[in-house]
Amino acid sequence: MWPVIVIAVVVLALVGVGAYLLTARRPAAGPELEPAPPTRPSVDGPAVDTAPTKPDVEPVIEEVAVEPEPEPEPPRRRPTFRERLAKARTAFAGILGRSAIDQDTWDDLEEALIRADVGIGPATDLLDDLRARVTDEGLETGDQLIEALKVEMKSRLAGSDRSLRMDDDETNVWLFVGVNGVGKTTTIGKLGKRQVDAGHTVMMAAGDTFRAAAAEQLETWSGRAGADLVRGAEGADPSAIIFDAIQSASSKGADLVLADTAGRLHTKTNLMDELRKVRRVADKEPGHVTEVLLVLDATTGQNGLVQARQFTEAVEVTGVVLTKLDGSAKGGIVFAIQSELGIPVKLVGLGEQVEDLIDFDPDEFVDALFEG
Ligand SMILES: Nc1nc2c(ncn2[C@@H]2O[C@H](COP(=O)(O)OP(=O)(O)OP(=O)(O)O)[C@@H](O)[C@H]2O)c(=O)[nH]1
Ligand SMILES: [Mg+2]
């Protein structure tokens, strides 16, 4: 009997140990594991045509504030009139290639000039001189007529001093004025970069204290340009900020202050008075206002002329920056401004990027109006 009992106990013991070992290899019972989160398809991997599915779990990376990467800045060259004036060119294209100059030709030419915003007065003058030339020189074809028109246009724009005045050993102040949204701040950014590249030490003055985001916008441009910046609180006196910037520039030995101002309607007397004060204060020692640049949007057409008249009366504009000529068929405003107000266009904006600001070269401009 005893051996049977001993064998039974040993067998039971062995079964028990075996069962324990088997259960010990299994994971302990516990909370269900979360399924692995869906992974984003690799950007570099092969393109898979899958329907977009909304992930169950929002990817954590989108909740983390990530510093934006600095913009890659591939070197770009400055654009040319020829590349950007395609719109203006089409107005004159129909005249070229005509075998005779008849009344229709004159009518079409007048219409093209007015559509290009040369203005009725300057267009009439141009056409009168052109008629005399056609008779004197015996011109017969549309191509000859356009060639003669180019000569007339170039001669009207020739001879102006379009340089930007920069006095040695002075704190030069260039003041930017104009109505809302014409491109003042952007132009300061582009020009600031040019001046820094030319070896000047540039200070930008955030004189637009009216619009909340204006100082941030200029700050971004000052970073791009490598210029210093003075800004003040929203609603602060623009004259005070510009004066501070001039003093700071002077103490640092910076030779150029680019002063931004808030956009304003030329018809608002109080705002134009504020601008007069800005100019007066900016001209106090150690500052010297050597340029007052009126920024005009080329797409606004003949109203630019009215603006130019009012701003010149208030702050003695020394030159015009004509912006957005890339999106306009109205480059002719250049003639109206020059012939009616005698203010030279000095710079032209041909886009929104930092290099899209070029010196105004009348010959290149006129050629680009007509040639593809
Ligand atoms: N296409 C084109 N856009 C331009 C040019 N210059 C400026 N802009 C754009 O015009 C818009 C207004 O430019 P801003 O520099 O803010 O104009 P602003 O005169 O300072 O405006 P306010 O301060 O509000 O009066 C921006 O979107 C610019 O990128 C240009 O030459 N061509
Ligand atoms: Mg601005």
Describe the protein's architecture and organization.
The protein is of the alpha/beta class and 372 residues long. The chain has a domain at 171-317: Rossmann fold (3-Layer(aba) Sandwich), CATH 3.40.50. Helices cover 45% and strands 12% of the residues. The protein contains 13 helices and 8 strands. Strands 3-2-4-1-5-6-7-8 form an 8-stranded mixed β-sheet, sandwiched between helices. Helix 12 (333-341) links the parallel strand 6 (319-323) and strand 7. Helix 5 packs across helix 6 (142-157) and helix 11 (303-315) packs parallel to helix 12 (333-341). The relative contact order is 0.15. Residues 14-69 have low confidence and may be disordered. Bound molecules: guanosine-5'-triphosphate (GTP) and magnesium ion (MG). Residues 184-185, 208, 214, 260 line the site of magnesium ion (MG). Magnesium ion (MG) is lined by residues 184-185, 208, 214, 260.
